[in-house]
Amino acid sequence: MINLRELGAYAGAVDKDGVDITFGIYLPGITSHDGYEVHVQVLHKADHFYENILPRDFQLEYKEGSENDLWQAQIHLSPEDGTHFGLSGSYLYRYQLLQSQPDSDEKRIVTRWFTDPFALATDIGLLSAVVTPDSFAPFEWTDDEWKTPELADLIVYELQVEEFNSNFAGVIERIPFLKSLGVNCLELMPITSLKLNFNWGYEPLHYFAPYERWGGIQGLKQLVNTCHSEGIAVILDVVYQHVDPSFPYNLVYKDTGLESPMIGGDGPFGPEIDFARDFAREYIQTANYHWLHEYHIDGFRYDEVTDLYDGPMGIQYAHIAYNTYNESLKIGRFTPSGKPGEYSRLIQCTEAQNRPQEILKDTFSTSTWQDSFRCMSEGMAETGTVDEHFVHQVVLDQNYTGYPYTKTVQDIEGQPVDMPVMPFQYLENHDNSQLISHVAILPDDVPFGDRSQFYKLQPFAIALYTCEGTPMLWQGQEFAQNYVLPTKGRARVCYQRNVNWEYFYDEYGTPLVQLYRTLGSLRRTYPALRSRESFYYSAESRIEDKVVAYRRHHGSTGQVAIVFLNFSDGHQKISVPFPLSGTYREMIDQDKRTEPYEITVNEDNQSFEIEVPGHYGFVFIKE
Prior knowledge:
This protein is α+β, with helices and mostly antiparallel strands. Strands 18-17-16-13-12-11-24-21 form an 8-stranded parallel β-sheet. Strands 3, 4, 7, 8, 9 and 10 form a 6-stranded antiparallel β-sheet that branches. Strands 25-26-27-32-29-30 form a 6-stranded antiparallel β-sheet.
């Protein structure tokens, strides 16, 4: 078993005699019996770039009989004049692997240096770090009362921290804006330590350490804690299919020629994790538990599950999701009372684009990315037509889409309990060009979507916020962010696309943001818009005229919402039966009108003709 208490680096209290630091690393199959030596090189961060101050080198001891071939050392750093050795602060460290040569006093450098695969902190780039405990006060969580929201109540916002607003503190700064959109869940693209050159983080190197340049340990904890205080869940995008080539369990084992305990062959995205190996499964499971307990994370978006799914009882993704679900049952924020009979609200969202329905149905996932909504939206934006399949996707007709409503899981006592499941629905995500670029592209050597066409995005936004499933926004779509993403190559992941916050204020962004805010408020306010009951007015909708209608219904309250969408350039009339008698009020422009736009229905299924503005829509609510 992997025991984090004996791994990584831990610094003791600093006193006049200096500081003690304990290091530990597992290197299965690499032992002192074969002449191997493991050294750690340590340097105070404040001395990093002084040419006359060199790292101190210490040899680790091989722990005979340890399950995973543990190497450990407790070192003492005494104060030295002209340096920061022995003082408080952050110490950088890296490992080196050497091997004695037969019949010689010489030692061969096998791996010149490698990072710590269990580092809890890092510096910029490939260096591991350990911080003395007096450098900052222990973090005090204030989220004891926090409960992860129900899946049906989520509005998710996907963001890349650096592109969105620089760092973890920058995300905190934008929380009021996110809440104004109705957002109550952040999906953070990879936040574990990235290399210094910009990339999205899908070449993982450190699995236990948040990126130092974004605020590190304290910064991420503060972000999660603040989000929880503001009613926002936080889930992490995690990459368990492949690693960076310099990941120690790839690099070191290639250098030694020994079989890696984690890595199989090289794949299209990098060296691939081999889940047939016990150590690989334990490593990934330990990482998940670490984020749940140490950082109070509410769930995970699992990257590239298509390649990790080996059946409902498989040892890859299904095994991870099952164990993580069971671990979450021990944590109070995932159940309302923590008593038997409750399912965990842990969010486990897969990226499995080739068979999302199957994986959602047959694993302990709660949700899944699926591209149908996005692909149909892009096609409609490009052609100026309406695809009837789009509406079926919006209302998640189960016979059409194949997505389950619930699945049987287990409660804290292992007894069966039904848990709701649903896919994420989105117009945009980090993997694709933004929707405005499918409407029109500006002529330039660097392509950008034509934001003057922002109004054509409006019916798509209304559909997103009134759909069945969990709506997800990608950063900046709410004010027509207009990047065009290359279809292949390094420019996809290594070109920084900062959110253009100035768009928030301009003539195109301002009205679109206002629409998103209104829609966010409506979805959060009216349970009919979050329900699993929908009906498509297929007979009344006129695809050829680009006008469609559907309704949402909340059974226990009887609340009804009727949604009209017009994707054409001009006004369109459409007549539909209103299912229940009573008063229906149009809510999108409620605050803009001098008088309410209301329809009084005297008898069930009475039909009314509605005139819908071009590239717009209406939402009528009967409470």
